[in-house]
């Protein structure tokens, strides 16, 4: 297999970045989180792993004061379990710490492999809430109050975990959204 390199994102990577992200999310609970344009981040907090001009992994982070967040991390399915995510994470954590961040957080859903990976990288779960989707007109009608001239078709909601059992009986798509935190030291 050809060796991959980790480097800063360049604007010429956008199409390959988008393709990598879509393919990486396709078999996760974020399968419908499709971006058609790469969100811009602060310079130096956008990393890619590439083979030639193909992006096989990506990690974008943001920072406000001493707080930092992994905004996007995705590894192309054909290149998983090769240490790509771990290497990108180490590099971004070093950069965040150099800029004054004391911890980094990441938000993810119920994918067991992803949860295990974050834990193996030194992250601990700090909080949890629910992402609830009204995915069809029947669920949307149950979720929204009737309004004249407005027919709900779908919706996305946040809810607290104490309502989980009731929501799981009413909606077909309910996910736990978890915040993981890792100290930078």
Structure description:
- The chain has 2 domains: 1-101, 3-Layer(aba) Sandwich (Aminopeptidase), CATH 3.40.630; 107-185, no CATH class.
- It contains 5 helices and 8 strands, in the order βαβββαβαβαβαβ.
- It has helices at 14-25, 84-98, 112-120, 137-143, 164-170; strands at 5-8, 46-51, 54-64, 67-75, 103-108, 124-134, 155-159, 173-183.
- An 8-stranded mixed sheet has the order 1-2-3-4-5-8-6-7.
- The longest helix is centred in the middle third of the chain and has 15 residues, at 84-98.
- The chain is globular.
- The model has no long low-confidence stretch (mean pLDDT 93).
Q: How would you describe this structure in keywords?
A:
alpha+beta; 185 residues; single chain; Aminopeptidase; globular; 8-stranded mixed β-sheet
Lay out the secondary structure.
Blueprint: E1 5-8, H1 14-25, E2 46-51, E3 54-64, E4 67-75, H2 84-98, E5 103-108, H3 112-120, E6 124-134, H4 137-143, E7 155-159, H5 164-170, E8 173-183
Parallel strand pairs: 4-5
Antiparallel strand pairs: 1-2, 2-3, 3-4, 5-8, 6-7, 6-8
In short:
The model has no long low-confidence stretch (mean pLDDT 93). With 185 residues, this protein is of the alpha+beta class. It has helices at 14-25, 84-98, 112-120, 137-143, 164-170, and strands spanning 5-8, 46-51, 54-64, 67-75, 103-108, 124-134, 155-159, 173-183.
- From the N-terminal CA to the C-terminal CA, the straight-line distance is 34 Å
How would you classify the helix and strand content by structural class?
Answer: alpha+beta
> What best-fitting shape do the alpha-carbon axes yield?
globular
| CATH second-level architecture of the largest domain | 3-Layer(aba) Sandwich
Average pLDDT, rounded to a whole number, is: 93
Biggest sheet layout: 8 strands, mixed
In the CATH hierarchy, the third-tier topology of the largest domain is known as Aminopeptidase
CATH superfamily of the largest domain: Gcn5-related N-acetyltransferase (GNAT)
Q: Count the E strands.
A: 8
Cα gyration radius (Å): 18 Å
Q: What count of helical segments does DSSP give?
A: 5
Give the count of structural domains: 2
Strand residue content? 25-35%
